[in-house]
Amino acid sequence: MESICAEIIALAEKVIGGGAITEDEAKRLIRTKDEDTMLLLAMADKIRQKYCGSAVDFCAILNARSGHCPEDCKFCAQSGHYKTGAKVYRLLPEEEILAAARKAKEAGAVRFSLVTSGRNQDNPHEFDEIVDVVKKIHDQVGLEVCCSLGLITAEQARRLKEAGVTRIHCNIETAPSYFPKICTTHTFGDKDVIIRAAQQAGIRVCSGGIIGLGESLDQRVEMAFTLKKMHIDSIPLNILNPVPGTPFYSNRRLPPLEVLRTFAMFRFVLPKALIRTAGGREVNLRSLQAYALTGGLNGIMVGGYLTTAGRDPKEDIRMTEDLGRTFTRPKL
After folding, report:
1. 105 and 142 in contact (C-beta within 8 Å)?
2. Would the pTM count as exceeding 0.90?
3. Angle at CA 170, nearest 5°, toward 169 and 172?
4. CA distance readout (Å), 156 to 72, 122, 149
5. Which tens digit of pLDDT belongs to each residue from 196-223?
6. Other C-beta atoms within 10 Å of 222: how many?
7. Per-residue DSSP letter, 29
8. Do 307 and 63 touch, CB atoms closer than 8 A?
9. How far is it, in rounded angstroms, from Cα 330 to Cα 332?
10. Looking at the DSSP assignment, which residues form a beta bridge with residue 234?
11. Among candidates 147, 128, 151, which has minimal Cα distance to 70?
12. Distance from C-alpha of 82 to C-alpha of 69, rounded to nearest angstrom
């Protein structure tokens, strides 16, 4: 026990001093025993304090086009391959999107993300609608705008940049070595193309994934180092909330301390990134949600998720204030 505790402290000091940990070191950290986990969280939070300060970043998402997706992601309620009862609708009217953006701002969000189901944006009329509403969210509501639109082209990325999009969201979902186990209709390489197109257009990328898909601890480490190699500085970490009708519905739920160890490992690997807790936190972390923010994380996705409800944003605001943390503000 003394050796792992000493190593946790030594690795934290190494990162705080400007160094970097190796994959082997990260694999040892993520295997910290339950009885030593609070030390791991405390040192991850020291790293957060050093590089990220006290501010917590709130963002919110909207399921702007839902269901009948041709992709077969085994965790997703919106895949047309599975019978999940998910709602199906085309792109929401502009008024509904703007109303949702205003509600998100009232909940403390500084960034609002439009998410559409489907492989790409091959309907030029719908894409024009998205570009128009992005401008209005930015100008009329006063929020930063993020978009998660599938396999966008370089030209579409350029237009989104001109409209005021500050981030493109494209989760890599899991480690490259495990990706074929979760989806067969597109590849990890397809994800890489989107991310590179956004970066080349001058848009920062938000990319993370889901833990609890059946991946190994080593593959979570692989995912963290992959994001580091891709120069990702905004990382949402979801925890699988199994949806009836999907192939992963029977997946084992992760113990809260295992989730928190995974979060802490990400902070050691990516000390300067905006790392947020996102979907599945309520049902998986339960009463330990605050430990995510005292264990290295500096962001929260508030409100509902794509097909599942979240908790009242007022509770997240209260939790953040109770921890003595501050809040980020939109950079417009």
Report:
1. yes
2. yes
3. 140
4. 24, 10, 10
5. 989 998 999 999 999 999 999 999 999 9
6. 20
7. H
8. yes
9. 6
10. 206, 274
11. 151
12. 10
